[in-house]
Design a protein that fits this description.
By secondary structure, the protein is an alpha/beta fold. Helix content is about 40%, strand content about 15%. Strand 3, helix 6 and strand 4 form a beta-alpha-beta unit. The longest helix is centred in the N-terminal third of the chain and has 17 residues.
Length: about 350
């Protein structure tokens, strides 16, 4: 075998995807005979020896899984990965970890890398679980996987909280405190189907209360300086008195931006988040948020994956309970009009 030859080289020579090569190597019989022959010809021509871990290829018992999350900078995903690692250690599994930076192409590349390392299964959070090329590839390869945090409409297996219901519950709390002009600051919908579902819950709660939706501000998840995005909305004649962040990191950035604009939280504007990261309880004002049981989500996702690896069906989706964590960032709506304030340079 030529030094450095990989499953990617085999796929390129045979003119197929990495997932197809993986299926041939693992003995799947659903591959077209001519495709299987091209793959095996490429393997022979390149001298490829795929079983790099010394295991049986057909059984693919590497006792390794792949975990893909959007970011390890967001503590909610780090907590989930910690839960997966704890569960894997008990079961004797190792974990390969990758992050996509909310980019669908990076998701696909990570999945191909996992398959080239002969992982037995995957746990993933993807940008859009109902429209995902990497999940399509896994389905084609009949590779076991479980989604975590995603909440697809289709039959794909997942473990999550109910994003719509949780966001709805948070906005209902905001409205109950007298807020009638409620805006939302959300991570870009194209990068996160969770953000989009939370917006649905936000709109439903306002509609139930007979209130119009307030301003929607979509931002990049990595953008921590949001004053320039909020300045216009906060200096109108009828600015929102509350802002719902699609996740805690966005909400914390909103609090900083409001301070830069000369506004006080919660005296002028209330801010709430979604996730329940610990840092939100340590800052001042502390962040009011919906708590996802992230470590439990990771443990549950691995348990579901183990069921698949044992040959059981993927089963029904799992929705875990969310809870509300009060914080100083959420208060009653202002009782009188607030004076217009200048804002600092961004």
């Amino acid at each position: 075998m030529a030094k450095g030859t990989t499953i990617r080289d085999v796929a390129a020579r045979a003119g197929v995807s990495i997932s197809t090569v993986s299926r041939v190597l693992n003995g799947f019989t659903s591959i077209a005979p001519d495709t299987s022959e091209r793959v095996r010809d490429a393997i022979e021509a390149l001298g490829f020896r795929p079983n790099r871990l010394g295991r049986s290829l057909k059984a693919a018992r590497t006792h390794t899984i792949g975990v893909l999350v959007p970011s390890l900078r967001n503590p909610v995903f780090a907590d989930c990965v910690a839960g997966i690692q704890i569960a894997c250690a008990v079961a004797g599994y190792s974990v390969l970890i990758a992050s996509s930076d909310y980019d669908a192409e990076r998701e696909r590349a990570a999945v191909e890398t996992f398959l080239s390392h002969q992982v037995e299964g995957l746990i993933l959070t993807v940008a859009d679980a109902d429209d995902s090329r990497c999940l399509d590839a896994l389905d084609e390869a009949e590779a076991p996987y479980v989604l975590v945090y995603n909440q697809p409409c289709g039959p794909r297996p997942f473990v999550s909280v109910d994003n719509v219901a949780a966001a709805r519950a948070m906005v209902e709390r905001i409205v109950a405190l007298g807020h009638r002009r409620v805006g939302m600051v959300a991570g870009r919908f194209l990068q996160s189907d969770r953000s989009r579902l939370r917006h649905e819950g936000y709109r439903a709660a306002l509609a139930d209360a007979g209130l119009p939706s307030g301003p929607l501000v979509e931002v990049d998840f990595a953008d921590t300086r949001l004053a320039q995005h909020l300045a216009h909305h906060m200096t109108t004649a009828d600015p929102p008195t509350a802002l719902f962040g699609s996740n805690d990191m966005v909400a914390l950035a909103v609090i900083r931006a409001l301070r830069d604009l000369g506004l006080s939280v919660p005296d002028d504007v209330s801010v709430t988040g979604f996730d329940g990261v610990e840092i939100g309880a340590l800052v001042s004002p502390s962040l009011a948020t919906l708590v996802q049981p992230s470590r439990a989500l990771g443990e549950a996702a691995f348990a579901r994956l183990l069921d698949q690896l044992a040959g059981n069906p993927a089963g029904e989706p799992s929705l875990l309970a969310f809870t509300f964590r009060p914080g100083e960032s959420l208060g009653p709506a202002p009782t009188r009009a607030q004076p217009q304030r200048g804002h600092a340079a961004c």
